[in-house]
Design brief:
single chain; 337 residues; alpha+beta; Ribosomal Protein S5, domain 2; Alpha-Beta Plaits; 2 domains; five-stranded mixed beta sheet; 12 strands; 18% strand
Amino acid sequence: MNLIGEHTDYNGGFVLPVATPQRTHVELRPTGGHEVHAVSAQEGCAPAFTIGAERPVGGWVDYVAGMTRTLAAMGHGLGGFELRVDSDLPAGCGLSSSAALEVAVGRALREAFDLDLNDVEIAEAGRRAENEFVGVHCGPMDQLAAALADTDQALLIDCRSLARMPVAIPPGCELVVIDSGQRHSLADGEYNTRREECERAASLLGAEFLCDVPQGDARIAALPPPLDRRARHVVEENMRVEIAVDAMLRDDAPALGKLLDASHESQRALFEVSTPEVDRLVHEVRDRGALGARLTGGGFGGSIVALAGSGTAGTLSQPKLGARVLIPPARREPSRE
């Protein structure tokens, strides 16, 4: 779950994800040959495919096939296998279920075929699978968070250098993630459209990435719409991540909450990735006493993250819109699974 820093990763900026307690488990058995047979406890059997002849079929197995094709392209030898997936992480809720699957598959392949891969390399393989095979032009955040983040602290990632720094959640506050129930699919096209708009804006500004453009640059307002709005969101959101880290290091939960609010408004008005249903959920949890709340994930539905004072998060756990709580208010033990 991304605490703050939305659509900054593929723009060369900063992000601040936190791991959720949900897990995607993969069981894998080598079988010889080159055929792959995969089944999901949630989605059922997938069409079999052959390593070296992978083709997208438009289902969850594309993330598995994308990983085998990418790892082979990276020089790793693979054989056929049977695979079973079981996950309590809902798809389409903005919490990187595809990245969790890619990383879990990568780790299972590493163990089964004795591949020389570290977790950062597995995350990079997952990003390439998503970009080049599935067709979602995401940045590196989701896969790095699935591979490296913990549940008890945030992970500041510089998405250009991949440098990372753990940042503690301020004491006296809790995070709650609520699924709006409105499914989204980043492969449907709007996500890629936003990335294309950002790349066009950066090109017009003479920058490699939008996050290279300084906040307040007068040229942003001179861009043609909607590129002016897209660029302003990215540049200001990148700065909000840095200010959020400073607030967390000072244990200033109210300041962090205000930044979450500002981030949501920017996603709604400037980047235009929120929906009326998500906006209502954000306003509801604020009315119930949240210090701040925002849409998290790629947008167009999915989940929100809310910041609450210690002992008050339970009041956010009964939304009126039929949404469900994915991270309970209780403190969680760290995990690297």
